[in-house]
Amino acid sequence: MEEECKNILLTAFNGSSAELMIKNIKRYKTLFLPNDKVKDSQKLIDIISKEKFDYVISFGQRPNIKNKIHIETTAKYGEFCISTNFDCDELKNIFEQKGIISKISHNAGTSFCNQLYMNGLKYILNNGLNMKMVFIHIPLTKNILDFDIFCKRMCDAIADIR
Hints:
By secondary structure, the protein is of the alpha/beta class.
């Protein structure tokens, strides 16, 4: 008996390694963001306010990492912090079981990634939505040894999220 497929939304910024990674994934709904701090959050909130997702997994790229991912626990704005409701340790285990080196990070950045994460988490919390959101940084394409294998492993890991 096949396990029920979770309803997952994957997001990525246009023109990023994350966009290249998720553009061919047909199993889940994808949302590509225009690299605009206001419009990115508006697009995310628009879709999660209209459709029910179990998980929102947002991807961005971090130029200074190679052949590994950073699972972000927290979005920050000044002194205000909001943490994901994802079990990041379990997520790290899932990725590592698929051969993806993973690091738990508490710094989603200071720009587009953090802004999207902050606004998405706040919307989910403030509206009592029964969905979990996490932000994952992946390397630039040139910093991934074999991009096709990396993408397959990421897709396999996402399929194992419970």
